[in-house]
Amino acid sequence: MVKITVTLGKRSYPIAIASGLFGDPTAFVPLKTGDQAMLVTNQTLAPLYLDSLRVTLELSGVKVDQIILPDGEQYKSLVVLEQVFSALLEKSHGRDTTLIALGGGVIGDLTGFAAACYLRGVRFIQAPTTLLAQVDSSVGGKTAVNHPLGKNMIGAFYQPISVVIDLNCLQTLPMREFISGLAEVIKYGITLDFRFFVWLENNIDALLARDVTALSCCIRWCCELKADVVSTDEREENGRRALLNFGHTYGHAIEVKMGYGVWLHGEAIAVGMLMAAETARLLGCFAEADVERIRKLLSSARLPIHRPAEMTAGSYLTYMKRDKKVLVGERRLILPTAIGRAEIRSRISNDIVLTAIRACSKSS
Amino acid sequence: MVKITVTLGKRSYPIAIASGLFGDPTAFVPLKTGDQAMLVTNQTLAPLYLDSLRVTLELSGVKVDQIILPDGEQYKSLVVLEQVFSALLEKSHGRDTTLIALGGGVIGDLTGFAAACYLRGVRFIQAPTTLLAQVDSSVGGKTAVNHPLGKNMIGAFYQPISVVIDLNCLQTLPMREFISGLAEVIKYGITLDFRFFVWLENNIDALLARDVTALSCCIRWCCELKADVVSTDEREENGRRALLNFGHTYGHAIEVKMGYGVWLHGEAIAVGMLMAAETARLLGCFAEADVERIRKLLSSARLPIHRPAEMTAGSYLTYMKRDKKVLVGERRLILPTAIGRAEIRSRISNDIVLTAIRACSKSS
């Protein structure tokens, strides 16, 4: 079992990575005999993992209740959040309960936010089942639900007490979901680690074939990068954590405008990263050849590299205006300066942004 | 202007107390020219204070938007919270915005929770207009909304950046609301400060007449006590802050069962405090004469001292089981040991609790 620590003083916590962890009670320490827990999952995952995880916990003497939510980004809402609170109250869960998020980014973000707010804060464990959640959203304590007017607008910084990554989950993940997760993987290479980007270029086929050794190496690498970023900038205050929003300002516009769940998060982020790279190129701070190298890796990963035909370039601007990173009065974008390095830039004209968006059209 | 500090390291903040503060731009520092703010208030208060506060802020160059919510405890809900988020998003409020809670406990709790969650946290200022909010709920960062199954079940510990108490508000407060606030005032005397309890016995008529000198002294005293408790136990972890829940476990049962807003918070808490005092007496740790002294002060303050005839004693138990303080597996009650001193007690039998509840009947 690989163990990585997110270092945050008293709120430090472990990330455990291995195959078969959902069958290993020691992975869910500090849960112990007599503890109360609420498993939160969705209708797709429940038949796959719920029973085995319940048995594992019950073998440790943990009293387990469960909530099964509908599957999809459109259910990451305040309405569904209230259902989680109702279930917790109906089963008399107290301040000493532990929520366990068994699922992808939607379940993790929503359950984490529920844990942050229920009785003003209870413990929670991330048990991420998708590639995206394992490499990104389950680590670092960003929790949220969506608002009809914007993604992740309502939330909290609230850290889990542990992250339990069972690599077996990736074998049953639908291909489209798996590929979507690769977008966040590639993001780490572009923004933080040139060596990892090169490793991805060399191992993308092994990853697509879900080779366990390649997956284990990849997820460990991403979690180490993420843990380091979160440890140095938990609340996105000094600019370091903001780099991980690379591609997200553009990408969120696609997700929101197309309707939650129509484009998967990673698909939208892939095109968003390309738009951001184009923006940097237009500003003269990023090489044309590096844009192509990103485009090639995204393409090898079978991620989309063209923006949705249904959206005009202009329509992005409205949604980008509402992005959390933008809502400081002016638009701020994360732009690469080289592969493996990025920075925050503001005061970029609408013209440049629109040209970058148009450069990612199918016809261009 | 009286200034009290809530000492919480980097999150320390001032409480300013004086007549006419809503007309004084310096009271709202650090808001400055160019800042964006959202005033949150209700339909009852808007005609009284909204315009003058707007003018004060606009004179300082602050860009002010406003949301006017319906008035009442029943609107302290997730549904109304979502309306606040919608207004903030529609007006493109960013991470640098400041929410200003202009109102009583409902507005303060809901606005504070909105500030805690909006974009994962923005600044907020408490501008409490009721006695209850001025002496208790606006200080200390307990924010929340209600759930149909329990009061304040969904929330966060989230501190304001300042509390601005304009004593003039108390002159227009409806008498029933004013009296309701006196319950929390009396709570401080019973749980924390015998000297204050005696002062209240001697000054209750001046307070009821809304004598400005008496009010100023009273509110300052309460805020100093509250600031001290919050500074030493922000998140209710070491038992000190929990003492301020005195009367609330019983009282919340009345509020929830009768329907939010039917019994005012302070009215329910008054009877709840008497029930807690009776419980302590039945356990032999609180003198009969002191129960009578509390009953007499509550009665002089024109607060209810009899439980609602509509509720059976047994019906309290269900709601008390769901109380946040109880939801640790066993019921814990705050009980006085002398006037000016209280402690947390658990494992109190249902028989004792029921007898204490019955002792507060009109017929008994």
How would you explain this protein's 3D organization?
Two copies of one chain form a homodimer. Chain A has 13 helices and eleven strands. Chain A is an alpha/beta fold and 364 residues long. Chain A folds into two domains: 2-172, Rossmann fold (3-Layer(aba) Sandwich), CATH 3.40.50.1970; 175-358, Dehydroquinate synthase-like - alpha domain (Dehydroquinate synthase-like, alpha domain, Up-down Bundle). In chain A, the strands form three sheets. Chain A has a seven-stranded mixed β-sheet, sandwiched between helices. In chain A, strand 10 (332-338) and strand 11 (341-346) form a beta hairpin. In chain A, helix 9 crosses helix 10 and helix 9 packs across helix 12. Chain A is globular, with a radius of gyration of 20 Å. Chains A and B meet through helix 2, strand 7 and strand 8 of A and helix 2, strand 7 and strand 8 of B. Chains A, B: Zn(2+) binds at residues 184, 248, 265. Chains A, B: Residues 181-326 form the 3-dehydroquinate synthase C-terminal domain. Chains A, B: Pathway: Metabolic intermediate biosynthesis; chorismate biosynthesis; chorismate from D-erythrose 4-phosphate and phosphoenolpyruvate: step 2/7.
